[in-house]
């Protein structure tokens, strides 16, 4: 099961890409309420979005991005493009999702 | 655990040097990463680590709530009207580590990105757009009633 909800929709000359990822996005600065110990950092660091073989957006994130992060942007594209989003977190875990532009 | 950190460090370093030799990254970009902009504790340090000295500009627009009831989820949209914008960064000057995100625009990407960020307390959301060798900035205050960094 992928942890990413990815949607890509044509809006005029552009394609609007919206993504919702499931991830705790721990900053490493928060304390566990029960134990009082710091919760280790665990957040998405790198994101790459491609359309076909073109890279349309890359992002570097820190722990200040909200839990279950949301990302939206547009690019010049058309229906039928294959949009793929991949992330890597600070523990080296990865996930990716792909969708057809509708 | 130490070994793992060491390995990751080596891997990251070799990946970065590969990217440099392949001409994918300019040395200044690598410097910025090596400077640990995401670890910087103040806005000034983050800007130093990113090697940016942005000028204030009305071309940079920030869409964020004036009052955020929940600092854990603050929706932010940044639009850059500066021609040739290649990079958009979002920072929060009141957070323990101000740099939240840097977006690098690829082929055909519009200079507008939306995401959701955490804010520990009432502070300014600072947006920086990089266009060529120039950078532009704008800020907007968001009042936070419940902080988002405690939990």
Task: Please characterize this protein's 3D structure.
- The complex is a heterodimer of chains A (102) and B (151).
- Chain A is mostly beta strands and 102 residues long.
- Chain A has a single domain (4-97), classed as Sandwich (Immunoglobulin-like).
- In chain A, 0% of the residues lie in helices and 53% in strands.
- Chain A has no helices and 7 strands.
- Chain A has strands at 4-11, 14-21, 44-51, 54-61, 70-76, 82-89, 94-100.
- In chain A, strands 4-3-6-7 form a 4-stranded antiparallel β-sheet, with no helix packed on it. In chain A, strands 1-2-5 form a 3-stranded antiparallel β-sheet, with no helix packed on it.
- In chain A, a hairpin with a 2-residue loop joins strand 3 and strand 4 (54-61).
- Chain A is elongated, with a radius of gyration of 15 Å.
- Chain A starts with a strand and ends with a strand.
- With 151 residues, chain B is of the alpha+beta class.
- Chain B has a domain at 54-144: Sandwich (Immunoglobulin-like), CATH 2.60.40.2470.
- Helix content of chain B is 24%, strand content 39%.
- Chain B contains 3 helices and 9 strands, in the order H-H-H-E-E-E-E-E-E-E-E-E.
- In chain B, a hairpin with a 2-residue loop joins strand 8 (123-131) and strand 9.
- The model of chain B is unreliable at 22-35 (pLDDT under 50).
- Chains A and B meet through strand 4 and strand 5 of A and strand 4, strand 6 and strand 7 of B.
- Strand 4 of chain A pairs antiparallel with strand 6 (99-105) of chain B.
């Amino acid at each position: 099961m992928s942890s990413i909800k990815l949607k890509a929709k044509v809006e005029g000359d552009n394609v609007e890409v919206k993504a919702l990822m499931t991830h705790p996005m721990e900053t490493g600065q928060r304390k566990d309420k029960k134990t009082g110990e710091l919760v280790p950092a665990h957040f998405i660091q790198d994101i790459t979005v491609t359309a076909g073989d073109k890279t349309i957006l890359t992002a570097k994130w820190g722990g200040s991005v909200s839990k279950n992060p949301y990302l939206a942007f547009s690019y010049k594209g058309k229906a039928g493009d294959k949009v793929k989003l991949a992330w890597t977190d600070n523990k080296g875990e990865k996930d990716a999702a792909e969708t057809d532009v509708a | 655990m130490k070994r793992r950190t060491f390995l990751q460090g080596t891997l990251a370093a070799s990946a970065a040097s590969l990217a440099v030799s392949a001409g994918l990254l300019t040395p200044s970009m690598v410097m910025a990463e090596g400077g640990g902009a995401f670890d910087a504790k103040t806005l000034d340090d983050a800007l130093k680590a990113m090697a940016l000295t942005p000028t204030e500009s009305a071309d940079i627009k920030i869409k964020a709530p004036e009052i955020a009831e929940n600092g854990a989820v603050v929706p932010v949209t940044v639009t850059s009207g500066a021609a040739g914008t290649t990079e958009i960064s979002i920072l929060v000057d009141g957070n323990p580590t101000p740099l939240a995100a840097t977006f690098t625009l690829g082929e055909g990407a519009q200079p507008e990105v939306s995401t959701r960020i955490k804010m520990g307390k009432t502070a300014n959301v600072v947006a920086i757009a990089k266009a060529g060798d120039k950078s532009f900035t704008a800020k907007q205050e968001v009042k936070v009633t419940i902080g988002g960094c405690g939990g």
